[in-house]
Amino acid sequence: MTEQNISTWLLLLILTVLAGLISSVNFAYTVPLILLLAVLKFMGVAFSFMEIKKANPFWKLLIMSFLVIFCGIIIVAL
Amino acid sequence: MENEVKDHKNIFYPPGGILIWIIIFLELITFGIALIALVFYSKEDPTLFHDSRLQLNITFGTINTVFLLTSGFFMANTVHELKQNHQLKAQKYLLITMLFGVLFLVLKLVEYNAKLDAGLTMGSNTFFTFYWMLTLFHVIHVIVGLVILISVYIGINKKNSTTKMEDVEASAAFWHMCDLIWLLLFPVIYLIF
Fold first, then answer.
1. Interface test with A, best of B12, B29, B65 (most A CBs within 10 A)
2. Closest residue on chain B to A34 (Cα)
3. If DSSP codes are grouped into helix, strand and coil, which group holds residue B136?
């Protein structure tokens, strides 16, 4: 086990619980916050667990582009 | 086990290989479009979507997220240990990876059973049509992922294993893809409406 994997995993668990808690509170930024937490978790898995951080910048750009387009459309559509 | 490590800085050799990443992006785009369609449909009847969303069990969804993330954590450790030639540790971590995958499926079955008992089927309303189709499609991916991991486990257990590191990385990438898809499904279906 690497320290980085352990810290990523713990962070992902904290973000998951946080997302559940935020969803029960109704305020103006609930949806953007939930999506932001989802993006952070997605990046944690892709960059750390899937080791995209070691890949060519093209793949990092592709992942980030997907996230920006997906979340952008969801926020605009809601 | 053949432990040839590729230079991942080369654009054609992302971890797991370029083919699995083409599949991953196709899957992400497919699920992404479906989720965006769900959000657009919600504009037609926001109250229905809100009421339907409230009938989902957020606790189950959160626990399932924890199961998949923990499974992904052990998968990442499996790959790391194999690269270090720690065969036994890798086998142990791979078993734990599969265990959490199975736990995800078991909890999903419990959740599906509760929905069916409550009469919330695919035909109940638009929200539940999307809920059943997207989550079932994801469950199929998890089952396929488990089959792939079982084949990897058998492969690395052999005495004169011909399993390549890239095969293990590709299998790991497929398994992590199930995490990625769930990380999109969970907030959109369970939380935002």
1. B65
2. B187
3. helix
pTM score: 0.91
Q: Which residues in chain B have their CB less than 8 angstroms from residue A24's CB?
A: 58
- Structure-derived torsion over alpha carbons of residues A55, B140, A31, A26, reported in degrees to the nearest 10: -140
Residues of chain B with C-beta less than 8 angstroms from the C-beta of A30: 192
Question: How much is the ipTM here?
Answer: 0.91
A2 contacts in chain B (CB < 8 Å): 77, 80
Contact criterion met (CB < 8 Å) for A74 and B36: yes
Angle at A9 between CA B11 and CA B7, to 5 degrees: 20
Q: What is the pLDDT of residues B163-189, one digit of tens each?
A: 888 889 999 999 999 999 999 999 999
Interface probe, candidates A45, A48, A73, chain B, greatest B C-beta count within 10 A = A45
> Does the pLDDT at position B3 exceed 80?
no
Closest CA to B151 of B175, B182, B180, B181: B175
Listed in sequence order, the residues at least 6 apart from A52 whose beta carbon sits closer than 8 Å to its beta carbon are A46, A59, A60, A63, B14, B15
How far is B64 from B67, CA to CA, in rounded Å? 5
